[in-house]
Amino acid sequence: MSPEPIPNLVDSSTGLGLDRDKATPSLQQHHANEDFSSYARKEKSTHITKSLIKATIYASISGLLFGYQLGITSGALHSLQSSLDLTSSQTESITSFFFLGLMIASPFGGEACDRFGRRKSILCTDGVFGFSSLMLLFAPGIKVILMGRFISGCASGIALVSAVSYLTELGSGDHSHRGALVSTVEASVSLGFLLAYLTSCILLKFVDMEESWRLLFGLGTGLLSFIQWMGMRKMPESPDWLAQMGFHGRAEEALRWIGSRDTHSIKTRRHDHMHEESPELRRPAVISLECPSISQYYRQVIIVAFLAMAEQFCGHINIMNYAPVIFAEAFFDYDEEQATNDGAVASELLSTTVILGIVKFLVTTFVLFEVDKLGRLFLMKAGAGLVSVSLLCLAAGFSVNLEVTYESDSGATEYKHSSFQKAMVLIGCTGCVAGFALSYGPITWLLVSELSPGSIRGRMLGFYTVLTHGSAALVSYSFLSGQVKYSDAAPFWLYFICSIVSWLFVVLAVPETGDVDDGDVEDLLDELWFWGDENPLNCCTHPSLNCGGCNKRRASRRGEELGRINSCFENGSLDQSQQSDVEFV
Fold it and tell me: InterPro entries, alphabetically (predicted)?
């Protein structure tokens, strides 16, 4: 029997959409709230309840919307060409404007997510999705289409940040399924791709070609956002966020709704826990809108920034968006202009995108069930390595000289791709999609969320989203024009080099974050040579550099040294000669 809904969980009179606990202002409450947040995680049920599954499904629709928005570009491409007679630059802009919206909106999404809650942010984006779907459904021309795509990108940027934060915190009570919960977002992204491809194939057969793009862009987005809005209205806010903001009573109600079995015990042990802590914790909690700075976590910022760019410069997004164009070039010997304008998205070529969508979904589903067993780092290394090998196959397939055949009757000369080249292209595309689904797709979201403390998680995810989709806009806008200006193989060689560098960074600088609490991440990074004091490039080895993370660790080391000296004095174990040799960090 499913738990009863939480009464009065939404209060329209407050900006946060929640009843406020009685509070007194105290900025020092932040660490106390973090302590209770950690305690709350320990109180969550260690099994996946029906309520938790329901919340996960509704939150993951954000990923479904994102995947659908990306995948539908490929299916709508030929319809847009027929209807509006677009140039290659305009075609690239339809994809790039979506990523531009993602990049611009994500910082605001992260900030809103941290300040006003994960659930409320998701609900707001559903309304924005509905508005953009109407724009695209009735768009009279390319300018309105670009505006609608931009607004859809803005909504996706906020929704993804909110959904990942929400699921990370729902699953933080039991690390054994935290990875699976967060990975459902990427699984739903893959499902969104597949749904977009299947919808495109069906509409091509039953709907007028010139108008099918309206239904593809508008109707699907509006329907999915409405379903999520209806479902998320009944879901609770993240218990971790509630606890951090001082809503301890609401956090208990959310925990009970998620599935904690002994609610009386939760209240009793929370009371005991609070009395064991400092006097500040026993005072009424307060909502503080002053959030810690992410500059204190510079190493996490570097990891997030590198992975965000690596995720896009492996070229996966162009393989998914322009798969019909790539296969038209390899299997039908079209040049770039012919592949874009002369039927490259015909039904027989769209079937190739369906195959890629199925591969992506199946591999992501495998990760969903195995990520907590195999580990984040293992999957990241394996997937990034597979992407590198696959890109090498793609680059080689388009670099080998074409076969030359002569027509004896007409005397004409034909240039065709050999069977070897076609095999390399097919293996390269499939392998790149599979490798991405094994690593960058689901694991990067998970690493970013687990490397970030709860108090900055929304902003860190927003920072990641800005970089990754800014990179995606650049990569997608330069693919077709890059092939025209340089060669068919040139973009793939660039992606291959970037992918090799990314794999080396993962091996050297990325930790395994499974079964790791927020407070243990700094120690985990200290154990890696790349971030340790042994590395001469580490800024913590230079006292003149004053990044927030370095200052925090230096202060911690000074405190540990002072504590050791004080203990030695109290025990009488520090003689005069040792006292003169004491050095402070």
Answer: MFS_dom, MFS_sugar_transport-like, MFS_trans_sf, Myo-inositol_Transporter, Sugar/inositol_transpt
